[in-house]
Every structure is written in C-alpha cells, then in structure tokens.
Design brief:
The chain has helices at 3-11, 18-28, 35-48, 52-64, 92-102, 121-128, 136-146, 153-156, 160-170, 175-179, 201-210, 269-280, 286-302, 308-320, 323-344; strands at 76-81, 106-111, 148-152, 190-194, 215-220, 235-240, 243-247. The longest helix is centred in the last third of the chain and has 22 residues, at 323-344. A 7-stranded mixed beta sheet has the order 3-2-1-4-5-6-7, with helices on both faces. The chain folds into 2 domains: 3-49; 76-328, Pyrimidine Nucleoside Phosphorylase, Chain A, domain 2, CATH 3.40.1030.10. The N and C termini lie far apart (49 Å). By secondary structure, it is of the alpha/beta class. The radius of gyration is 19 Å and the shape is globular. Its EC number is 2.4.2.18.
Length: 345
C-alpha cells in the first residue's frame, strides 16, 4: 500500500489505527518512498493532529531501526523536550542533565542538532567542547565513567538521514518532534518529557506507558513551551505504574521567582553555552530558576526525591556546591581526550 493512501485518509481527518501507522511508518523509512510523498503525509498528520496510537506506532518502528546500545539493565532516565515550540528558549534540559548526573541519576540523553529551534542539544554541546562524533562504545564508556552520556540521534539512528532531509524541507514541527524523546536506544525506565501541546500531555503519558516506562513526568509550559515554564501555566502529568495523574506546581511556594517566557530566551549555540556555564557557576537568573524547576521534575520522575520541593533544594545544592559544573568539565575532558586519541592514530 503506498504512503499516499495513508496521506489521503489523514487528509480526510481520519485517525490511523496503531497497525496502520506501523505500516505507514515502515514506508517512511523505506528508501523507495519518494521524499515529497513522505512530506505530504507528515504535513497531513500535523494538520489533523497526531494521536497517541500514531505517536506510539512511529516510535516503535523508529526505535526498531536504532543501533543497539549495550548497557546493563538499570534505571535510566532521559530528560528532553520535543522541540518545535518556536520559543527559542535556551537549552534547559541539556543544562539540567549535568545537575541530574551530579546527583547520581543515570542519564542517557538523546538529542539532535537544531531543526526548528535556534540551538539544539547537540549544537550547544559542540559549543561547550563536547563533540558529537562519539561511537556507540565511546558513549557507553562515557556513561561508565561519569554516569551520563549523550547520544547524537544521527549516530544511533542511521535511517534518519533521509527523514531529516524531509523535515528540513518542511521547516516546521512534525510528528518526528513528538517521537524524538521516545526513541532513545537505551531501555529507559523513567523520563521527563516536555511537549509543545498542552492538550496532549495526558495522551503523551499514555504513550510512555505503552512503550514501557514505569514512571515519568510530562509537561507543557506557557504557549506550549516544551519545558516547565516559570509561571502557573504548566500542564503536568505523572505516570506511575500505569496510572496517570495531573498535578500542578506553584513557583512561589517552591521559592522560585515567576518570570515571563521572554526571560528564558537564548541565542545561538555559543551564546547558550555562555548561559549554561554562568548558570552552573551559580549565577542567579530566570535561567537558573528554570533549571532548578526542570531538574526537580526529573529528580521526582526518577524517584530520587519524594517531592518537587525536595528536588528544587537538591538541584540548587548541586549547582552551588560546584558538583554540576564538575560533571560538565569531566564530560568535556572525556570528549577532548577522545579527539586527541583519534588525532594520534
């Protein structure tokens, strides 16, 4: 069945079943499927609005094509946003990853270069001196040494190159933004995901349940920000052992200063790297509070703390003590050592 058949159904506002979306997804990864037809299908899905079953099916197929990651069984967390909110905030989840690792959270962070933002996770890491050319064994060794690793999506998803060309031609968020956080090659048990659709938060938690997560937090901030924002506009859901609960957070109760979304805007990768370093050096700002909040949600999802307040306090201590900055420096050193080894070979 050609992908146009599925595009036609979606164009008529028909939702695809899980099995139909599996078929359509396989066609998207087939090199024989014309790229313009894939683009038509993705645009039609976006206009209709993706469903939980469609997102779960695409994530299942996409992960099946990922290179295997030989990590032992364990409690692994990824913290990332779907991207695509167009708000050009700085790299909150990437900064938070160092805070989490400094607190003993096993972080396997899956990211990419910018597609619909000013600076993707991999862009800011590169600006910090952490290259994106890790082999799978490099990534595993980094994790074994530091309890944190970064997986550059094109390195672990070889089938994504062609899809990436299609996404760039569209230039707007697609369902692939929604599935990116779901296709980490590690067998994640827990996750913090920010999405750009407040109306889809509970559905996304259901997708995480379908895909086997034991515990997770899903958040959508102001104007669909794909992180928790510093106001009362966050939509949050907790997945715990199959049950999904909505909850709220109050900035002032947590000791955080409310701030508009404009206060969280970043710039290009070099500018965001400066923000990240200043923050981990203890510079207080809206950026600092945003990282405290998002780190606390991840600590809570991981089960490291029993409350969001406890998570905020733990995140603050790990920054002010220098532990989070030390973790960043250790990862940079590992990256630079790999580059030197390759130069000498």
């Amino acid at each position: 069945m050609p992908i146009q058949t599925f595009a036609n159904r979606v164009s008529k506002n028909e939702n695809l079943t899980y099995e139909q979306m599996l078929q359509a997804s396989e066609l998207m990864f087939n090199d024989e499927t014309p790229k313009d037809e894939i683009a038509d299908f993705l645009i039609a899905l976006k206009l209709k609005g993706e469903t939980a079953e469609e997102v779960a099916a695409l994530a299942t197929v996409m992960k099946s094509y990922a290179l295997p990651l030989d990590l032992p069984e364990g409690n692994y967390l990824d913290n990332c946003g779907t991207g695509g909110d167009g708000l050009k905030t700085f790299n909150i989840s990437t900064t938070s990853a160092f805070v989490l690792a400094a607190n003993g959270v096993s972080v396997v962070k899956h990211g990419n270069r910018k597609i619909s933002s000013a600076s993707g996770s991999s862009d800011v890491l590169q600006a910090l001196g952490i290259h994106t050319n890790f082999t799978i064994s490099d990534s595993i060794e980094l994790f074994n040494q530091e309890g944190i690793t970064f997986l550059y999506a094109p390195n672990v998803h070889p089938k994504l190159k062609r899809i990436g060309e299609v996404r760039r031609s569209i230039g707007k968020p697609t369902i692939f933004n929604m599935v990116g956080p779901l296709t980490n090659p590690a067998n994640l048990t827990t996750q913090l995901v920010g999405i750009n659709r407040p109306d889809f938060v509970r559905d996304y938690a259901e997708v995480l349940h379908i895909l086997g997560r034991k515990r997770a937090v899903v958040v959508s901030g102001t104007q669909g920000m794909d992180e928790a924002s510093l106001d009362q506009e966050n939509t949050l859901a907790l997945l715990e052992n199959g049950d999904i609960h909505s909850f709220t957070v109050d900035m002032q109760t947590l000791g955080l200063t409310p701030a508009p979304i404009t206060a969280l805007r970043g710039g290009n990768p070099d500018e965001n790297a400066v923000i990240l370093r200043d923050l981990l050096n203890g510079k207080h700002s809206a950026y600092f509070d945003a990282v405290l909040l998002n780190s606390s949600l991840a600590l809570f999802a991981y089960g490291k703390v029993e409350s969001i307040q406890e998570g905020v306090d733990l995140a603050r201590e790990s920054i002010l003590s220098g532990k989070a900055l030390a973790k960043l420096e250790a990862v940079i050193q590992y990256s630079q050592d790999i580059l030197k080894e390759r130069t000498l070979q």
